[in-house]
Amino acid sequence: MSKVYDVAIIGGGPAGLAAGLYASRSRMSAVIVEKAKWGGQASTTEELENYPGSIEMATGPKLMKRMKDQAEAFGTELVKNEVTGFDIADKIKVVKLGNDENINAKTIIIATGAQPMLLGAPGETEFRGKGVSYCATCDADFFTELEVVVVGGGDAAVEEAIYLTKFSEKVTIIHRREEFRAAKSIVEKAMSNDKIDIMWDTVVEEIYGDGIVEGVKLKNVKTGEAIDFRTDGVFVFVGTRPISEFVRGVVEMDQKGYIRTDEEMRTSVDGIFAAGDVRIKSLRQVITAASDGAIAAVNAEKYIEKNTSYKEVKK
Amino acid sequence: MIELNKDNFDTEVLQAKGSVLVDFWGEKCEPCKALMPEVHALAEKYGDKIKMCTLNTNANRRLAIGQKVMGLPTFIVYKNGEKSKEISGVENCTPETVESLIKEYI
């Protein structure tokens, strides 16, 4: 049999990178498989001021690069590929990859995170890349001196609205409730920004345009009033959904697809752990993801130690 | 891969015969940059069969918007100077989807 890793980590965001770091530092062999971009969602967040220690030049991409380099420096192997399936019948678990290669591991940590939820309004898919965006850092530059709307009311929506004011003339936040869920410090910053307008109790009914976005049709949920609002861009930050479809039926999850774990990050399957945004939890942040990753790695080690049949004779 | 700008876009893309793939990217677009090594590998593999170009949208914003590109990453195939097919968005643009896009035109 080819190489058997102590731990195979799926997902290269803060949870996976922290798990890799902790695993490698306790002399476990660890590999992280990432299908898209190292750093995950955090690598597309420009402002990242709530991770302790990252205040000067605090940007998502920079912090994530440091996390990746640190894990690698301690020996974590990094593989760019997609996980297509599992074989967990035996004690040595098999993680199947996109190019028909396999990774054999004693334990698995699922750290696939989450991705932006869609708004579900007509026109949203049609105008993707034509004014509808889910990534402010990627697309803000297109809207220099133009006007945009931001849909949502959580941390991401309000933070990205502030970021967008560096480019756009006017940023209007459209929120379906009458107050934000975002942290007070962020809300205060937005409220005092001259370029930001807020429309409360308002939902987007349609996104329209001709080749590119020209406006949105809005509705006030309290008065029922319909509003035609001209805009050049629609940034959507209305929450996230877990990336867990590929483990459906393998580990227990809730209706939305978030993976159920205990406090030690153990899933319903022995030897499989979950960490970060993909699991059921109350606060999805870089810091809680990193914390989960560390806990998962430590418990993966405990699991291997307990299962004596795994123990190899050490010289 | 050919680097496009406002001076060569017309000749290299709009007046070109056959199929041309354009990779629209930006300096702050981390997903674009993550894709780049794979796209260059695809250019090595298919470059003799299809013309492959990159366009930095930060340096050529008006040009990109003129092509109705306002989001990244975006890949467009032009056929005889006309837009034929495009894919856009982080989860829609992967090494696999870009490769199958190329394969449709060779």
Distance between the termini of chain B: 17 Å
Fourth-level CATH superfamily of chain B: Glutaredoxin
Query: Could you give the order of the helices and strands of chain B?
Result: EHEHEHEEH
Q: Cα-atom Rg of chain B, whole angstroms?
A: 12 Å
Query: Strand tally of chain B, please?
Result: 5
| Protein chain pair with the most extensive contact, residues per chain | A-B, 33 and 27 residues
Main sheet strand line-up of chain B = 1-3-2-4-5
Count of discrete structural domains of chain B:
1
Q: What is the number of independent domains of chain A?
A: 2
Mean pLDDT of chain B: 95
Structural class of chain B: alpha/beta
Shape of chain A: elongated
Unreliable residue stretches of chain B: none
Number-wise, the strands of chain A total 17
CATH topology heading of the largest domain in chain A = FAD/NAD(P)-binding domain
What would you say the CATH architecture of chain B is? 3-Layer(aba) Sandwich
**Number of helical segments with 4 or more residues of chain B:** 4
